[in-house]
Design a protein that fits this description.
This protein is of the alpha+beta class. It folds into two domains: about 25-85; about 90-140. Helices cover about 50% and strands about 20% of the residues. It contains three helices and three strands; from the N terminus they run E-E-E-H-H-H. The protein has a three-stranded antiparallel beta sheet with strand order 1-2-3. Strand 1 (about 25-35) and strand 2 (about 40-50) form a beta hairpin. The longest helix is centred in the C-terminal third of the chain and has 29 residues, at about 115-140.
Length: about 150
Amino acid sequence: MIKNIVIGIVKKPNVVKKVNMRQKVLNATYRKDSNTFPEWMKYEVEILNEDGSTTKIPAYGKDLQDALSRVVHDKKVAKIEKKTKRIPDLVWVVLWFGYVLALADYSMSMWQDNTTKGIIFVSGIMFITGLTLWAKTWFRQRNIDKS
């Protein structure tokens, strides 16, 4: 036999639920078509920040939805970039060489003649690593504020 079930909602007095405000788009206006890419458009997006201030940023895309998704993607990339910049360069180098040495160990275990191919492989990886570190240093020096 089925009995009547009463579902009750218990309200707790004096409980305040704090909700963090997220960024919201207040206004998006179409500016112009792109000259270099004919299918793309430029929008100006006004965003309400968490602290209540507003900012206007340009957004590019094939339509408004594409432009807004690119803005969201750029915000996520900036957030991740802040976290990765705190990691020292030495840690990235150790991780890189650990990955490369594991890959080299695996690949050399499958070769018959390890000496010549191994030397060429390791020297090529060292060249690529040196080139990458040189490019990173060069870009870092160019992006220093001149003021």
